[in-house]
Amino acid sequence: MIGFIVFGLVVGALARLVLPGDQRLSILATLLIGVVGSVIGGVVANALGTGDLMELNLLGALVAIASAALLIVAVDRVRAASRSA
After folding, report:
1. Is-contact 9 34, C-beta < 8 A?
2. With 70 as the cut, is the pLDDT of residue 50 above it?
3. Other residues' Cβ atoms within 10 Å of the Cβ of residue 10
4. Residue 7 is inside which H or E element, if any?
5. Pair 27, 16: CB distance under 8 Å
6. What is the distance between the alpha carbons of residues 4 and 12, in angstroms, rounded to a whole number?
7. How do residues 13-31 score in pLDDT, each as one tens digit?
């Protein structure tokens, strides 16, 4: 479980690195987004038959980073919309 949380933090940090600009997210938000991205990556890898949900593999990691990046973009847009309203 601790490894899953650490991997989620790494995924969240890598997702923030691949996105341009400054994301105003706390470490906790980065961790949560990374964990959600990790779960999505595990589910996709499991569905494609490349690994188990709790197993680390390349495809799952790439999907996890991409999904976490999309989640960060979504969170940024929701925050920007709430600031302008």
Report:
1. yes
2. yes
3. 17
4. helix 2-18
5. no
6. 12
7. 999 999 888 888 888 988 8
pTM (two decimals): 0.84
What ranges do the domains of the chain cover?
24-84
Share of the chain above pLDDT 70, in %: 93
Q: Which residues of 52-83 are buried (b: 16+ CB within 10 A; e: fewer)?
A: eeeebeeebbebbbbbbbebbeebbeeeeeee
Q: Which two tokens stand for residue 8?
A: 């989620």
DSSP one-letter string for 18-80: HS-S-----HHHHHHHHHHHHHHHHHHHHHTTSS-TTS--HHHHHHHHHHHHHHHHHHHHHHH
Query: Which residue carries 């709430």 as its tokens?
Result: 82
